[in-house]
Amino acid sequence: MKKQILFIAFLCAQLFCNITIASAQKNTYKVGDFYCDDDKMGVVFWVDESGQRGKIVSLEESPRLAWATDGYEIGNTSQTYNKENGAVNMMMIQIDGGWKRKFPAFAWCAELGDEWYIPAIEELKMFTLNKEVYEAVSNTLFECFQLGATPLANGGEYGYWSSTEVEAMVIAEVVDGVEVDRDSSSPKHPEIPVVRMGTNNSWHEWSFPKYHEFCVRAVATFGPRPETMVVMPLGY
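RESULT FIELD:
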């Protein structure tokens, strides 16, 4: 049944998306390509030199969700400090018993499939701060609306959660592609950076308490797997 659904999805993509799938047939991709394989669909936002290994962003985004529920927003950290690989942060969350109840944004990603996760902050920047990537991904999402795709930042002024925890007293703000640290007067507790949309598709990185509610755009990898990384809980 799942293979039949994927086959129908491919047909829909050909009918409703003005996208060439020639590269997909050769198992190579470029940024902006529609991806449908390995039981997942999305838009390519990063590929390596071979074009066979990369990352995709989900066609849809979540409703506004808390990063973590009460009891986890103040004085607690989940050790999700990885800035480059949100899959590592996802594994750290999944160590916690009852994580799907405690971490709603992560649970939403998990519902898409085992390989989906909230992007780390640097992954999130790839398809929000890079103008060419942003436009390529946005165009494909627009063309695939018949598949349920929604535009980036469909929530308008609201942004997307990343999975990367930061120290509460420092906010990293991106101004014209340059990251600048500045002090924050907010209470000291773990916060999560979120990329928000400003005017004229200008994105900025901010920090917010975990109980705030923002949308999530999930990402997943495809292609040959790198060496598996084993993450052990602290104090194991």
